[in-house]
Amino acid sequence: MNTEDQAAGEKRVQDVLIKPLLDLGLAKPSTLTKARFDDMLKELRQMLAYMTAENLDLLRQEVEVRPGGKDGDRFPIALKIRKWARDIQQPVSGPSPLMIEVFTHQLGRDALEKGWAPELMINLRGARKWPGPFTVSGIKAAADDAMRRLEDIELRLSRNEEIQEEDAMFRNKRRAAIQKCQDIADQSQARGAA
Asked: For residues 21 and 59, what is the distance between their CA atoms, to the nearest angstrom?
């Protein structure tokens, strides 16, 4: 999902799911502050942007019959809403807008060029935010062993030496992970050129 699709999806979540539920009078969960509730709604817009309007309408109906709070007048927590959303429509598994942005940026290009792109992708999936300098140092350190191992395997192969099956599997898996990162970079650059 590119940035434009993400923005359109977030607007769709706001218009089809969140606004109608607020208009019905569902209030913030009593366990959340106003700021935390706003964060929850923002997260729902981001995480559910993949859903079609029809499926968001089904999700809205689900929330209406299963509201939160002891009096049934509260928004359910995001975890429940996201579970119901997955039951209605599975999320797409393409790169997030953040991944596209990072792999288009010099940070992503450096990671691809120097071999630590798979670890950068793992971090982006987990943290879901742009890594700062300290985090980038940790990502590089975490990638060090895998990068050296791949380099060693490639060197042995270039000398026509045999490698163990375990090394061959590691090499294939590592190269596939790097290629996935490269595909994200290529895909986002192609969109930018269009």
From this structure: 11
